[in-house]
Specification:
The structure holds two protein chains of two kinds. Chain A is an all-alpha fold. Helices cover 77% and strands 0% of the residues of chain A. The longest helix of chain A has 39 residues. Chain A starts with a helix and ends with a helix. Helix content of chain B is 64%, strand content 1%. The chains are: A mainly alpha, B mainly alpha.
């Protein structure tokens, strides 16, 4: 296994080096880096040209200039390790990169993860409910999203989601017909997803539509959009729901130990609600939130492990997943509790959903307020990126699962009396993941490409701007900084795909 | 993942021969249904059964005819006129504040159905010209990328060994760079030379996925008996590649080519949006949106129409690709609805449906 990974890693590093060479030469040859100076009327024009030539080594042809650059990156030029050179304006690229990298990586990672999860869930449910109304609806939507230009979607989102929602917040009254439509639509979706005879479908429809309408009415009556909250009751209901749901998917409800462990974890989560909300959540820094999340997963895992009996691993897994989701709900409530402070702050002025930039300049507040600020800025670009890439994943995972479900070993698994859950989750799903893993890794490049366009529409000064400004000035250094980061991201995703691949398919480990 | 129909020289062997889990009786029904049809006829028959693809095809032909006849076209020195009163580069007096005159109730086209921009250009003419450019780029990119990808994939899949290593490592290098990034870099250099050159450049970048797919197909097909038979009969490599293996891989190639063309149109519009695609004075759908996105609040029609045309074209091509996949790959066949199935059980529907019913009832 280790040899397999090392071999793949070394191969990808060489391929990546070749790609950087190609990219550097192409950028350097894409235009004349001195064009603006040549046209200038400055009296010291010749000196300026000379200065820039000396600064960027323009007297060396691009085919060789690459080696000066890569020497700097590898720390061979005595200027320290990972020296990316300077831009045309003599700014160090390292500093520009460190300013740009955070927001873009955040956007790309969140969008990729969300798109993968959503795509898998929707693709698998459509495959399991093949030829239902839900399946046809999702198929059509997937084709539509597949055909959408991302910049067009982004502009529409800005106009209708951001500006529309902000206008709505000024006087958050939901019209009765909106409530009715929402209820009917969610009823229809659930009725087509959940199988059953017409009578049962009708009951599903009634329950789904009724609860959707009830939730909206509750939000309306409590002015929820101005003061969003989940509250201890909401957290308790969702925690128990999560415990049952995760157990049902992960081990099946028949596994009493798993259900018990999940319910214990849910109970611990509910018990921690007030101490967290009113107590120690005020003293947290960003890194300690991450630490807390890890600790939660660890504690839940431990609870599962020690109550799991003879075969504790699946129980511990179930408990850990439950713990993660319950903690997420509580954290969400904590974020919601500062929503009012956030929207009323002088920087926001009651128009929270941002259309420009990756953060509100000069905003001050707790970790939670800043978190909400990041959320409102990430929301629209993430939606744009997710919409477009998740359509593809939906199609792939649907096709892949259908292919697997028609295999003989699935028939065998059913014939020996396994439950449908075991057949789908253990026999079919894992095998269906193998081709999906390749495609997903392959596709990260297109998410990054989409991010360049999305960042431009939303006015982010991230990696996309670094790339574009560099390219416009025929300046390879910032462009290569962009490519180093995005390219290594693609390679990391490919490596993860290989690991997943090897983990899923023993045949690969052998060869 | 994709399979295709084994076509022997004569093209008469039925589909489904290698399908897993299909019994002889089902096969015989399948075979009876397509007996005496050539491969092309079978594929055509299946394609036309895919209603979405059929509608998409009609819409796409309509868009193509509309775009090329309405405002005429210029390719190099070749020029044709059109039946539309305005052209894309000449501004006329602004009527009605530039608002679109198209209305459905009562139906009226008016002078400027899609409206006018702030200098008075007729947006219908501009959008038609942009559509022409996007369609042309789509076709050129599709042709070039498909050719290169097929040749590269065929050589490395057929010969394996060092040609395979060299070609596939080269493919890996290109794949590492996101398409929009390498497209932008090349577009900055070659965008000024006009849309056809830009299309050729994009085609030189987009072949990688095709190459990988064709290689995989060749790797598995070259081990089949009919290739051995051809070799024993004394056929040369070139003949085996072009006459024996390639016809069997054509399904995968055509399907992927349509999807590639749909991707090409989105990439071109994206590049034009960023400013690295088609350059002024010419126009393209992405460029129109890019120029007018700030005016969305005041003149939304400048934004809606080019976007709708991009979506229409991409959606149609995607649907046609889906229909092609169904036509070439019998395993991915669309199954009939429950109502049809019930009728089929009563014996009202044609035998092929009943074959599907038996298979579905069993799984």
């Amino acid at each position: 296994m280790a040899t397999f990974v090392t071999r793949r890693l070394i191969a990808s590093i060489f391929i990546f080096l070749a790609a950087t060479y190609l990219m550097y030469v192409l950028v350097a040859l894409s235009g004349d880096p001195l064009a603006d100076l040549r046209d200038s009327t400055a009296p010291n024009k010749l000196q300026l040209i000379e200065a820039r030539t000396a600064l960027l080594n323009l007297d060396v042809p691009p085919f060789l200039r690459y080696f000066i650059w890569i020497g700097g990156v590898l720390g061979l030029r005595g200027t320290g390790f990972f020296d990316l050179g300077v831009t045309v304006q003599n700014q160090p690229v390292n500093i520009l990169l460190s300013q740009a990298i955070g927001s873009t990586l955040q956007l790309v990672t969140i969008a990729a993860v969300l798109a993968i999860i959503l795509g898998l869930v929707v693709g698998i449910t459509t495959a399991l409910r093949q030829y239902s109304g839900y399946d046809y609806g999702v198929t059509f939507l997937a084709f539509l999203f597949f055909s959408l230009p991302i910049f067009w979607v982004a502009v529409l989102l800005k106009q209708y989601v951001a500006i529309g929602f902000n206008d709505f917040l000024r006087d958050p009254q939901i019209a009765w017909w909106v409530i009715a439509t929402f209820a009917v639509v969610s009823g229809l979706i659930w009725a087509s997803v959940i199988p059953g005879a017409p009578r049962r479908k009708l009951i599903t429809f009634a329950i789904a539509a009724g609860s959707a309408a009830a939730v909206l009415m509750y939000m309306q009556l409590t002015d929820w959009f101005s003061y969003p909250h989940i509250g201890i009751v909401g957290v308790a209901i969702s925690a128990v729901g999560i415990a049952f749901g995760v157990t049902a998917v992960s081990t099946g409800l028949k596994r009493r130990a798993a259900l018990r462990a999940s319910l214990i974890v849910a109970g611990v989560g509910i018990a921690m609600y007030y101490p967290f909300m009113l107590g120690f959540s005020f003293y947290l820094a960003p890194w300690s939130i991450a630490l807390l999340a890890l600790a939660t997963i660890g504690v839940s895992f431990g609870i599962g492990w020690f109550t799991g009996g003879n075969d504790p691993a699946p129980v511990a897994r179930t408990a850990a997943i439950t713990g993660f989701f319950v903690a997420a709900v509580i954290a969400l409530d904590r974020y919601m509790s500062v929503w009012d402070d956030y929207t009323q702050s002088s920087r926001i002025n009651g128009r929270p959903i941002a259309t420009i930039g990756s953060q509100t300049p000069g905003l001050e507040g707790s970790v939670w307020v800043l978190g909400v600020d990041t959320f409102t800025h990430l929301l629209l670009p993430t939606i744009a990126l997710v919409l477009i890439s998740f359509a593809g994943y939906t199609r792939y995972s649907r096709a892949s699962l259908l292919e697997v479900m028609n295999q003989d070993y699935i028939r065998t698994a059913r014939a020996k009396g396994l439950t449908e859950r075991t057949v789908v989750m253990r026999h079919a799903f894992r095998n269906a993941l193998i081709p999906i893993a390749t495609i997903v890794a392959f596709d990260v490049g297109s998410i990054i490409g989409g991010a360049v366009i999305t960042e431009r529409v939303f006015g982010w000064t991230g990696m996309g701007a670094l790339f574009q400004n560099g390219l416009d000035k025929v300046d390879p250094n910032p462009v290569m900084a962009f490519f180093l980061v995005t390219g290594s991201l693609a390679i990391i995703f490919n490596l993860i795909a290989d690991l997943v691949y090897a983990g899923l398919d023993p045949r690969i480990r052998v060869s | 993942m994709m399979s295709n129909i084994p076509v022997e020289q004569s093209g008469r062997s039925g589909p489904g021969a290698s399908e897993p889990g299909v019994t002889d009786s089902e096969n015989s029904i399948e075979l009876k249904n397509i007996r005496g049809l050539s491969q092309a006829q079978i594929v055509r028959k299946r394609f036309f059964r895919h209603r979405g693809a059929l509608v998409a095809m009609i819409v796409l032909v309509f868009v193509i005819v509309l775009a090329f006849t309405s405002v005429g076209t210029i390719i190099g020195d070749f020029k044709t006129g059109g039946w539309w009163a305005y052209t894309w580069n000449i501004a006329v007096a602004i009527e009605n504040g530039g608002r679109p005159t198209l209305s459905l109730f009562p139906f009226a086209i008016g002078n400027h159905p899609f409206g006018q921009d702030e200098v008075g250009r007729d947006i219908f003419a501009v959008v038609m010209r942009g559509t022409q450019q996007s369609l042309m780029i789509m076709v050129i990119v599709g042709a070039i990328a498909t050719t290169i990808g097929t040749v590269v994939g065929a050589i490395s899949g057929f010969y394996r060994g060092w040609p395979d290593s060299v070609l596939m490592r080269f493919t890996d290098v290109i794949i590492t760079i996101p398409v929009i990034v390498i497209g932008a870099v090349l577009g900055r250099r070659f965008g000024d030379f006009g849309a056809p050159i830009l299309a050729i450049i994009l085609g030189l970048v987009l072949w990688t996925g095709m190459a990988r797919l064709v290689r995989g197909e060749f790797l598995s097909l070259r081990e089949r008996e009919f290739v051995d038979a051809a070799r024993v009969a004394g056929a040369r490599d070139r003949r085996i590649i072009f006459r024996h293996i390639l016809p069997n891989a054509v399904g995968v190639i055509i399907v992927n080519a349509t999807l590639l063309m749909a991707a090409a149109i989105l990439i071109e519009t994206g590049l034009s949006f960023l400013g690295y695609g088609v350059q002024a004075p010419d126009t393209s759908l992405g460029k129109i949106i890019s120029e007018n996105q700030a005016a969305f609040g005041t003149r939304p029609w400048l934004f809606w129409w080019p976007g709708l045309f991009i979506i229409t074209i991409a959606l149609c091509v995607n649907f046609i690709g889906d229909g092609m996949r169904d036509a070439f790959d019998p395993r991915q066949r669309r199954m009939p609805s429950d109502r049809l199935l019930r009728r089929a059980k009563l014996g009202e529907v044609d035998p092929e449906l009943s074959a599907v019913v038996t298979r579905r009832a069993r799984s």
